[in-house]
Amino acid sequence: MVKVGIIGGSGLDDPDILKNPSEVTINTPYGNPSSVLMCGSISGVDVAILARHGKDHSILPTGVNFRANIWALKEHGCTHILAATAVGSLREEIAPGHLVFPGQFIDFTKKRETTFFDEDVVVHTPMAEPFCPNLRRLFAATARDLDLLHHTDKTVITIEGPRFSTRAESHMFRSWNADVINMSTVPEVNLAREKKIHYASVAMSTDYDCWREGEESVTWEMILETMQQNADKVIKLFLDVIPKIEAYDDVCAR
Fold it and tell me: Which residues are part of the catalytic machinery?
């Protein structure tokens, strides 16, 4: 049975997109999740929405309790996670407003709890394909059908934050073949894999970071403005994708 978790914000925690919405509080061994789960259904599919940075966006990237968030969704029975995230573009062709479906990540975080297996037992989790390949293909096909500008098979680098990159760092990340940059994908994606949840990300390009000559350096206000203008794209994509998700066995569940 499919049950979909949505992690995000910027309108994605709007109960109006759910049928028969209700709040569910889940306690975890790792403390409180970022928010209660807003639960209901979309096109007959059970859905639970979690606000990554809290309902009022008060939780800093480093302060997000990623383990509690993933544990809560798994405990609620979620088999799939659709994660929305804002990203800066490190490539000319990925313009603000475009959607990106990452296939790989680079971890440049420094302070986060990145595994459930840090006590008693050592588990080495395969991570060659960190994002669910089936969900990624479904996102791309649906985006084409909806005529949404998008990019597939890109690499996201996650930095610690809350500060933005220096220009030197931005150019370094480009030299590492990273395509977009954010502060939230890691360790969310690897924790989902440890819990054998199918996880894929929809990244919204909001700016050109600071590498691009002549471009205004990224600000939080710039990110918010672009996200608010384009959040409907992500919601539309999710609403179209969710009824197409089927239970299947692949690398994510092994």
Answer: 207, 209
